[in-house]
Design brief:
By secondary structure, the chain is α+β, with helices and mostly antiparallel strands. It has 6 domains: about 25-140, 2-Layer Sandwich (Beta-Lactamase); about 165-270, PAS domain (Beta-Lactamase), CATH 3.30.450; about 290-400, PAS domain (Beta-Lactamase), CATH 3.30.450.20; about 420-520, Beta-Lactamase (2-Layer Sandwich); about 525-610; about 615-760, Heat Shock Protein 90, CATH 3.30.565. Helix content is about 45%, strand content about 25%. The strands form 5 sheets. Strands 16, 17, 18, 19, 20 and 21 form a 6-stranded antiparallel β-sheet that branches.
């Protein structure tokens, strides 16, 4: 029914109270609403003082209406003032209303009671539009909030149970005729069981999941509508097309006034398979005795045989019909001598004995060997002991293998003891389990000195040189080898060099239980390498000395003689009379040849050993050689050298100069770069030489092509590496698309001094 209009209300009021004016009636009506409405109404001025307040608000604040008027909000409700005053200021400043502001309201009369309130705030304007205060309405929504929270919690509990149950759950509407609609809900288990996503299932109905060859299942849905519930077994079709054997429990309920079904679908394939297996096991019980690959003998309490399977027949040579009803000790008297009768009596007393090995010999079949017997009590369904059950396992082959294994163990022991390398076996805590004679010889420690003790405690060098990290890697299943290390044994003062190969030690279950370490002693080979290095260094030094001598002879002898010949030719040319053209040409060509020969001698002498290297030092020698190389090759070479300082040892200068020669020769032969740059830098501890170009070192001609003079005299990069290593330095070559850089770093003090002090090193 529509509410009456204000005009009709006024007319009705005029008829009922003809002397009351319309305005007075409306005012009275508004006052009545203001006073009695279940909403808190109040107004405040710009100083936040209450101008009006109704009874509902007074009840909320625990004060009378009169106690509100003229007081500030902070005086009436101090606990709420800090929250309310910013809202008032916002409304007073902007003039815009603030609607549906949620707030927790603490009752002044019950400080522990908190209620939920929703408030709206409006600006109050004077006739001239000036904002003179704020009016507010307050609704108590505590019960509503509690109801919503309760509904939310209930929904969350329902959702949790719906999703976590170990059955597929579906919800769908259904017509009165039993025709299902699309799924409204499907839980996570249902999605996993059928292979669909939730979104895919919500676009389907139960009809889409039925196997095509099965009868209509709407009968069961109609039964659920009629009786409230129905349970049946069927096959559902998964997304992959596979059939899933399921049990469906359908429960009818009303959803928003319409019939619906909650369907619980359980995968019973595993259960059905188990039931089938159980049926098979029952059928197979009859076959166990006949097909068992071990002997089975059952006796009653008088030790009369009641079961004797074919394996026992084959083992003993006695048929089942000849054994049933007889005592085993009558058949095989030797069993009593082995104590089997005692075992049988203990089984009748409830004891179980397993894995007892006995030798046997059957005179009738002449069979002999070993058998493992396990005997225990045989009980009925009431738990009463009614006899014994024994299993017999022929372990003859196993015993033969054990003998062979013992022989093999003896063989392995001899191999380990006579092996030409150390073998140490440790458990996971590095405690020594095996220590072969080679280890005794190398360390001077006997096996009795180390067995059961931690190798980390016995040999501190293991941790000092980080060898324990390889031990840990082996415990993780990795097979690894250590680099060469220096060992020392504090207990015996033995020391040397070695390499260890670490492997995981596994038990019969392939579990890692320790580490197998194979130790190879490399002291002799290292000493040989050191001797070879000392010989190499000596050869390099002798080579440099010989080059220096040859260069000096070329300069002091051959060059002077060539100069004398040239002077004599010049004298002859000036002294003799006029010569014919042929003679003049021959004399000129001879002088040119001698000049070129002199130049070649000077170049060869300089390549072998430039005098400036001894006289002025490495920087000057590099600059002079680079200038000559640029002139001969056409490759522009920039040279940048450090400020002069104390000259390094002679061997260091020679090595660095040879690297310059070799690097520039490779630039000319392989790089193809039009330029090169040499940088010589030094600090207090190191001298660094860099030769860089803009090409890559790749041979440009077949290896059979004759080598140039510089190539024949070059010592090669490998030789330079060895020379730098002998001096304690390093040689690095970095070649890329941007170019090639040769970098030599040489220590200037301790290492070079030590090496050069020992020329035989």
């Amino acid at each position: 029914m529509a509410a009456p209009s204000r005009k009709r209300q006024s007319e009705a009021a005029s008829k009922t109270e003809p002397r009351a004016g319309t305005a007075a009636w409306d005012l009275a009506e508004l006052r009545n609403i203001y006073r009695n409405a279940p909403v808190g109404f109040y107004s405040i001025d710009r100083d936040f003082r209450f101008v009006r307040a109704n009874e509902f608000l007074a009840k909320l604040n625990g004060r009378s209406v009169a106690d509100h008027i003229g007081r500030t909000v902070r005086e009436v409700v101090p606990a709420l003032a800090d929250s309310l005053e910013p809202l008032y200021r916002q409304v007073l400043k902007s003039g815009a209303a603030l609607l549906d502001v949620k707030m927790q309201w603490v009752s002044p009369t019950s400080p522990g009671e908190v209620s939920e309130k929703v408030s709206s705030y409006y600006a109050m304007e004077a006739e001239d539009g000036t904002i003179i205060g704020v009016s507010a309405a307050v609704w108590d929504v505590t019960q509503q909030e509690r109801t919503e929270r309760a509904l939310q919690e209930r929904e969350e509990r329902y959702r949790f149970l719906f999703e976590k149950v170990n059955d597929g759950l579906f919800v769908f509407r259904i017509s009165p005729e039993g025709v299902p609609g699309k799924f409204l809900e499907a839980n996570e288990f249902a999605c996993k069981m059928l292979g669909y996503s939730r979104e895919e299932l919500l676009e389907m109905s139960p009809v889409d999941l039925r196997q095509k060859n099965l009868p209509d299942a709407n009968f069961f849905l109609r039964q659920a509508l009629k009786n409230g519930q129905a349970v049946w077994e069927t096959e559902a079709q998964s997304k992959s097309g596979a059939a899933v054997l399921v049990e469906i429990s359908a429960t009818a309920f009303e959803l928003q006034g319409q019939p619906a079904i909650l369907s619980a679908v359980r995968d019973i394939g595993a259960r059905k398979r188990a039931e089938a297996e159980l049926r098979k096991s029952i059928d197979l019980n009859e076959q166990i005795l006949s097909s068992a690959q071990e002997g089975i003998v059952v006796t009653d309490r008088e030790l009369r045989i009641v079961a004797w399977n074919p394996f026992t027949e084959a083992l003993s040579g006695i048929k089942k019909q000849d054994a049933l009803g007889r005592n085993p000790f009558e058949l095989f008297p030797f069993l009593q001598g082995l104590g089997v009768d005692v075992i049988a009596r203990r089984a009748l007393a409830g004891k179980y004995l397993a894995g007892l090995d006995f030798p046997f010999h059957i005179p009738t079949t002449r069979k002999s060997g070993w058998v493992s017997v396990s005997t225990g009590p045989l009980q009925n369904s009431a738990g009463q002991i009614i006899g014994t059950l024994s299993t017999l396992t022929d372990i003859t082959e196993r015993r033969r293998m054990e003998v062979a294994l013992r022989e093999s163990d003896e063989f392995n022991r001899q191999v380990i003891e006579n092996m030409g390398e150390g073998i140490a076996v440790c458990d996971a805590d590095a405690r020594t389990l095996l220590w072969n004679p080679f280890m005794e010889e190398v360390t001077g420690l006997k096996a009795a000195d180390v067995l059961g003790k931690s190798q980390f405690d016995l040999f501190p060098f293991i941790k000092d040189q980080s060898l324990h990290t390889y031990f840990q890697r082996a415990l993780q299943g990795e097979t690894c080898s250590s680099p060469e290390y220096h060992y020392s044994v504090p207990q015996t003062q033995r020391s040397g060099w070695g390499v260890t190969h670490f492997s995981p030690l596994r038990n019969a279950k392939r579990e890692i239980v320790g580490v197998l370490a194979n130790v190879r002693e490399t002291t002799e080979s290292r000493q040989g390498e050191e001797e070879l290095r000392r010989l190499s260094a000596r050869l390099l030094q002798l080579q440099d000395d010989e080059r220096r001598r040859i260069a000096r002879d070329l300069h002091d002898s051959f060059a002077q003689r060539v100069l004398a010949v040239n002077l004599n030719l010049a004298f002859l040319e000036q002294s003799v009379g006029p010569l014919d053209e042929r003679a003049k040409r021959a004399l000129g060509e001879t002088r040119e040849i001698m000049g070129s020969f002199a130049k070649e001698i000077r170049s060869l002498s300089y390549v072998l050993h430039p005098p400036v290297l001894d006289e002025l030092g490495l920087p000057s020698a590099i600059e002079e050689f680079a200038a000559g190389f640029s002139e001969r090759s056409g490759i522009h070479v920039d040279v940048e050298t450090a400020a002069p300082g104390e000259r390094p040892p002679r061997d260091a200068e020679v090595a660095l100069f040879r690297i310059v020669q070799e690097a520039l020769a490779n630039v000319q032969r392989h790089s193809g770069s039009p330029t090169a740059k040499i940088r010589l830098m030094r600090d207090d501890d190191h001298m660094v030489l860099e030769i860089a170009d803009r090409g890559r070192w790749k041979p440009r001609r077949p290896s059979k092509e004759p080598k140039t003079e510089a190539e024949r005299l070059g010592v090669g990069i490998l030789g330079m590496r060895e020379r730098m290593r002998q001096l304690g330095g390093v040689l690095e070559i970095d070649s890329s698309a941007r170019g090639t850089t040769v970098r030599a770093v040489l220590p200037l003090k301790k290492e070079v001094d030590r090496v050069t002090a020992d020329p035989d090193r």
